[in-house]
Design a protein that fits this description.
The protein has 310 residues and is of the alpha+beta class. It is built from five helices and 21 strands. It comes from Arctia plantaginis (Wood tiger moth).
């Protein structure tokens, strides 16, 4: 009961409750619940929202603090830069500065000002970032025919989750109906999209592009190979083929020669770097003669070197 009586007394004396305490009735004040820091991506609209209570017949202005340039007064723009505009709905307490499209030079401090006497103002900060997509596999990818193409794209530094992320192959959007085994999973919260192409064939090779709605695109060149694969090829976790060949060839040398020479072993290990598995099988079938020849050659060479050094 006493609170109601107290409120009546304040109203009679021209005082009312404001956002930061008791304010004179009819005096404008800022709603401090408004978010005062905003982030926008380059090329996208940026918004700064200022809420003013009890505005009455006063005007709200937006000022760029670095040069004290008046951008807008009310809903009128006072800048030659048409990217700046003031948005306001009748009956609303919100006055919004829109910068569209935002550029890196727009980053900085802005001020929402009310034409009271003396003037009152509230500072805001805008940060404009360059949002870029990134494909985690790198700029080039080699895939063995029959395995899966698995591409993951992340929209980095995007202030808001992208409304969509499109995948292109060349100039065309990846067509799910063109063949089976193609799927895309997009997680807006993590700003991530995954493209999976099962059982890749050589005709699936090409330039794949990830294009988020609010970020610069990223591309990767995919090679689907039928033969031996380079080191950059996607792997399902199997032992690297060169390492396998090295182990097998070393085993062949050790089991064929009773006293394998270190020089001969080193020579074969180097050769295995350039030897395919099919070539290894042929060498394994006819390995005795060439290995014994190389063994005799390396022994003779080692003895001659040893004699000359004496």
């Amino acid at each position: 009961m006493w609170a109601a009586h107290l409120s009546c007394i304040f109203v009679l004396f021209g005082v009312t409750a404001g956002g930061g305490g008791w304010e004179p009735l009819g005096t404008p004040y800022f709603d401090n619940s408004t978010k005062r820091e905003a982030t926008a991506a380059v090329g996208q609209p940026a918004y700064l929202h200022c809420k003013v209570r009890n505005l009455a017949d006063r005007a709200v202005s937006w000022i760029r603090k670095r040069d004290l340039h008046i951008l807008t007064v009310g809903v009128h723009t006072y800048s030659s830069d048409a990217r700046f505009a003031a948005l306001h709905a009748d009956g609303s307490d919100e006055w919004t500065l829109r910068v569209s499209p935002a550029q890196p030079r727009d980053s900085g401090a802005y001020e929402c000002q009310v034409s009271t006497e003396p003037k009152i103002s509230l500072s805001f900060r805008l940060t404009v970032v360059v949002s870029k997509a990134e494909i985690l596999s790198g700029p080039e990818l080699f895939v063995r025919a029959g395995s899966d193409i698995n591409l993951t794209c992340v929209a980095k530094y995007a202030p808001d989750p992208p409304s969509f992320i499109y995948w292109y192959r060349g100039e065309q959007v990846v067509n799910y109906a063109q063949r089976g085994g193609i799927s895309v999973e997009t997680e807006q919260r993590t700003r991530t999209s995954r493209l999976l192409i099962a059982r890749a064939a050589p005709h699936d090779s090409g330039n794949y592009t990830c294009a988020p709605s609010s970020s610069e695109s990223a591309s990767v060149i995919v090679h689907v190979l039928s033969g031996e694969r380079p080191a950059a090829m996607q792997s399902s976790g199997s032992t690297p083929p060169r390492l396998s060949r090295g182990i097998l060839m070393s085993f062949a040398i050790i089991t064929t020669l009773r006293q394998p020479k270190p020089t001969l072993v080193l020579t074969f290990l180097i050769l295995t770097y350039y030897t395919t598995i099919s070539t290894f099988i042929i060498l394994l079938l006819f390995v005795n003669t060439p290995i014994k020849f190389l063994s005799k050659f390396t022994t003779t060479y080692s003895e001659a070197t040893s004699t000359s050094s004496r």
